[in-house]
């Protein structure tokens, strides 16, 4: 993929390095001259300019990108970049960084955001996931589909031990996508048995999350 990242601070550069390691083409757009450091991520294309300006986005060729990531430390700038990328340049996938959790409600498809990544929320979710057994933990929200990635770890005394995945009576708008078992990542098949300690990852809409709990015996 070709990916454009608005904001070449520590976050933007780290994302760029990871994507380059994954053999993607990356372009970093940075408006601050003191942050413009092409030597830090030499394999990326660098553009000095404000990604909130249509002219800069045109000159950078952003319409040729498959994904735009708005990764600045300013929520207002990230919203403007997202809106321009989606509405003016028809970028297929727009991911935006949320710096202030109070602004998270703004990061939706009305502003061109397909996926909003809130660092504080994700850190809190990781803490919950690490200590919560038997509780449903929301890890991520996919704005375009209004679905969430949620996780539940089966406790040692789970009544589901030994039961097949096909026996789970999940609601219509929920799908079990992965089972994490130790160091294994299992793509669940209908006949696969569940075990205590399994981490179950679901994609589901918010309104059916209580039904997932019920299906898992909570």
TrEMBL record:
Keyword field: Ion transport, NAD, Potassium, Potassium transport, Transport
Record has Ribonucleoprotein as a keyword: no
Domain RCK N-terminal as annotated: residue spans: 1-117
Pfam annotation, one family: TrkA_N
Domain of life: Bacteria
Domain RCK C-terminal positions: 137-218
Keyword Ribosomal protein annotated: no
Protein's name according to its UniProt entry: Trk system potassium uptake protein TrkA
Source organism: Amycolatopsis roodepoortensis
């Amino acid at each position: 993929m070709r990916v454009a990242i608005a904001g070449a601070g520590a976050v933007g550069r780290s994302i760029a390095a990871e994507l380059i390691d994954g053999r993607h083409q990356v372009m970093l757009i940075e408006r601050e001259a003191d942050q413009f450091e092409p030597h830090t991520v030499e394999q990326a294309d660098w553009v000095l300019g404000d990604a909130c300006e249509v002219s800069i986005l045109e000159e950078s060729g952003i319409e040729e990108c498959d994904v735009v990531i708005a990764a600045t430390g300013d929520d207002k700038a990230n919203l403007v970049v997202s809106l321009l990328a989606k509405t003016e340049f028809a970028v297929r996938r727009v991911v935006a960084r949320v710096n202030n959790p109070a602004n998270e409600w703004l990061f939706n498809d009305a502003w061109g955001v397909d996926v909003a990544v809130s660092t504080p929320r994700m850190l809190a979710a990781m803490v919950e996931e690490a200590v919560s057994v038997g509780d449903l933990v929301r890890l991520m929200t996919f704005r375009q589909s209004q679905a969430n990635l949620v996780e539940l770890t089966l406790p040692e005394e789970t009544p589901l031990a030994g039961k097949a995945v096909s026996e789970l009576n999940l609601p219509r708008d929920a799908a079990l996508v992965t089972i994490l078992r130790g160091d294994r990542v299992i793509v669940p098949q209908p006949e696969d048995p569940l075990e205590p300690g399994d981490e179950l990852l679901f994609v589901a809409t918010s309104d059916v999350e209580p039904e997932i709990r019920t299906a898992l015996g909570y």
